[in-house]
Amino acid sequence: MKSNIITNAILGVVVGDAVGVPYEFKSADEMKENPCRDMIGYGTYNQPPGTWSDDSSLMLCLADSLRGDYDLADMASKFIAWKAAEIWTPHGRVFDIGITTSKAIEDLKNILNRKDYEALTLLKYSGDEYDNGNGSLMRIIPLLFYIKDFKIDKQFEIIKDVAALTHRHIRGAMCCLIYLRLAQHLIEGLDKAMAYDKMRKEILEFWESMSFAEAEQKHFIKIIQNDICETAYEDLKSGGYVMESIEASLWCLMKTDSYKEAILAAINKGHDTDTTAAITGGLAGLCYGLENIPEHWVKQIVKLEEITALCDDLYNKYFDLNV
Ligand SMILES: [Mg+2]
Predict the structure, then answer these.
(1) What distance in Å separates the CA atoms of residue 223 and residue 75, rounded to the nearest whole number?
(2) Ligand 1 centroid distance, CA of 44 (Å)
């Protein structure tokens, strides 16, 4: 398998998710007693090793859609097809789905049935502060390949629309922007400290230019106004709230020195282990490359050939000419 920007990001997410799946919902104390040290099978959902969950499924749906032109209706139709277990499941059924995502996909069905495609671009205006789960952040990384050459304000407009297919509040969308800007700087070849630094500066400038509400800015204090490295591991949380996920993921990337260490640090916080590891894994994959992901983890990934074929298509579409 070729190591390139696409496989690094996509397998980074899928492998992290798969390592985390057996541990979902375990508490931090339980993880401390019995830490994750390697990819195992079974556990929480009784799935064989290498089984990835909704995080990877929805990420792969987005990546699959981006094989063609940018099209919100096509993305929505792929999410719907996944929920019906027609595409991008590891073993032909959906064993894990978030509440917000599940409800949102039912809304998408109604919108597509009415052929009211404009409604897809209006979802971002109906965000509820309590719908700030990590379900948009966990699936967003392939969007980077499409938006990488756009200016930050245009990137944010697109991110808001894609995030809002399932998660409509601006806080989750801002997390996606922060995550993708950091990923972009890793792709550009900056080391992770420089990439993080550059991202924080440009996000602060962007907030100024867009008059991002002070009341929202304060939620980002640990990762933007301050350096996440100043937060202690014990003070991180790793539940389903998007701010917890991005804080934990940035910490696990910045404070460890390999893909494996980053993923194990993410999972050993417990709770939403697969999603924290998936989000961490996308960045760690870009930072260290596929060659740094343990080979026996990659080899066990279910439907690896299909995922690799998807990565090849995306590479040919978005990178072949200019990398
Ligand atoms: Mg999951």
Answers:
(1) 30
(2) 11
The predicted model gives 231-260 an average pLDDT of 97
The Å distance, Cα 17 to ligand 1 centre, comes to 7
Q: How far is the CA of 202 from the centre of ligand 1 (A)?
A: 31
Q: Domain segments of the chain: what residues?
A: 5-318
* C-alpha 55 to ligand 1 mean position (Å): 5
Count of residues making up the chain:
323
pLDDT at 323 over 50: no
- Which run of H or E residues covers position 65? helix 54-65
Quick one: average pLDDT of 171-197? Answer: 98
- pLDDT (tens digit per residue) in 187-201: 999 999 999 999 999
- CATH architecture of the domain covering 5-318: Orthogonal Bundle (1.10)
Tokens of 132: 């700030």
Amino acid at 289: G
Average pLDDT, the chain: 96
